[in-house]
Specification:
Helices cover 43% and strands 18% of the residues. The protein is of the alpha/beta class and 133 residues long. β3 (49-53), α3 (61-70) and β4 (79-83) form a beta-alpha-beta unit. The chain is globular and about 30 Å long.
């Protein structure tokens, strides 16, 4: 299943590599440099998943996630935080961020791809189930 991914990170090199991995897996990627720019993009396009860094200028990932969750039209989009401040074993999870998942940037992005795709598949399944009810 081809996914529309919004990738938000102020690190251009990371965005380039992550976008390449996602596109090679068959997904389309839109990029933003911070949460504020991403919110502007969300006005025109609805991705299937949002993948965001935590520490960025202008609007960080924590505030961006909270703004997405506060918008009824955007709140159902799966939101993933990728941060160097999260350990590879999943510790230092961000309990004050309403993200669906938090992953470490120290992990290989390619190794995270199956988990991200499973997250989307579950979200799509739940959305389809809700519409049937």
């Amino acid at each position: 299943m081809k996914l529309k991914v919004l990738l938000v990170d102020d690190d251009k090199e990371f965005r380039t590599v992550a976008a390449l991995v996602l596109e090679n897996a068959g997904h389309s990627v839109t990029e933003a440099v911070d949460g504020f720019a991403a919110l502007e993009l969300l006005q025109a396009e609805r991705p299937d998943i949002i993948i965001s860094d935590l520490h960025m200028p202008v609007m960080d990932g924590r505030m961006f996630c909270k703004r997405v969750r506060a918008d009824a039209e955007l709140a159902q989009i799966p939101f993933v935080i990728l941060s160097a401040y999260i350990e590879t074993d999943g510790s230092n999870t961000l309990s004050d961020t309403p993200a669906d998942y938090c992953f470490s940037k120290q992990s290989s992005f390619i190794s995270l791809l199956p988990q991200l795709e499973n997250l989307i598949a579950r979200a799509v399944s739940n959305s389809t189930q809700s519409r049937k009810e």
